[in-house]
Write a structure and sequence with these properties.
CATH class: Alpha Beta
Number of domains: 1
CATH superfamily: P-loop containing nucleotide triphosphate hydrolases
Helix content: 25-40%
Order of helices and strands: EHEEHEEHEHHHEHEE
Strand order of the largest sheet: 6-7-8-3-9
CATH topology: Rossmann fold
CATH architecture: 3-Layer(aba) Sandwich
Structural class: alpha/beta
Radius of gyration: 17 Å
Strand content: 15-25%
Number of helices: 7
Distance between the termini: 27 Å
Length: 220
């Protein structure tokens, strides 16, 4: 179990030399001495486009290491992790929905979900169908993903993201293509799943945030 994620004096290398700028000085994240996210949290990180939201989640997930400072998982520095440790974290402790979704348009909706679920065995077929139904796309289950609208694809990607156990779920602009009603449905699903696992939710937004109740907003 991962109880805390701590950012210590974190700054993307691309921002190095800009430490005195207003955007960095006013940030609640960049160069913070010790910013700790606790398991069970509900956070929304807000920033303008280009502010580093996607980069931040990629740093935490270990996809990128082009930053100064440190990221600690329960006081263990992620810079020391080997491939095996990262694989364990990503399959059992941290789930990620990247902004670009990284789906397979040539596969059906269910095939996209099962690519992950067959590895984790986290959801039953019935549970997946119920989630598709709640999100209004149950009739798309056997359609090729590439034939769906971007908003429909985003809903499929959200379901795929929760097809695993996690202590923290990272969601990069997860409702950017959804209306308020679908945003609320997604918010309830994410909150239910996170609550069931005692997990933290860290999401990003440029103006259309995930409508989580009691979410704490942080300015990047």
């Amino acid at each position: 179990m991962i109880k805390t994620i701590t950012l210590r004096s974190l700054l993307p290398l691309v921002f190095r030399g800009m430490e005195a700028s207003d955007s960095i000085r006013q940030s609640q994240v960049w160069l913070a001495p010790d910013l700790t996210f606790e398991r069970g949290c509900r956070l929304c990180i807000q920033a303008e486009s280009g502010g580093g939201k996607s980069s931040l989640l990629s740093f935490i997930y270990g996809n990128r290491d082009d930053y100064q400072g440190d990221i600690l998982f329960d006081q263990d520095n992620s810079r020391t992790f080997d491939v095996e440790r990262w694989c364990q974290l990503r399959t059992r402790h941290i789930a990620l929905l990247p902004q670009e979704m990284r789906m397979f348009p040539e596969l059906t909706v269910m095939q996209n979900l099962q690519l992950k679920n067959k590895l984790t065995h986290h959801k039953t077929q019935e549970e997946l169908l119920q989630l598709l139904d709640r999100l209004g796309i149950a009739d798309k289950v056997n359609q090729r993903l590439g034939l769906l609208s971007i908003g429909q694809q985003q809903r499929v990607a959200i379901i795929r993201t929760i097809c695993q156990p996690f202590d923290f779920i990272l969601l990069d602009e997860p409702v950017s293509h959804l209306d308020r009603n679908n945003n609320l449905i997604v918010s309830h699903i994410i909150d239910e799943e996170a609550t069931a696992q005692g997990a933290g939710v860290i999401t990003t937004s440029v103006g259309n945030p995930l409508l989580l109740e009691n979410a704490r907003f942080i300015a990047l």
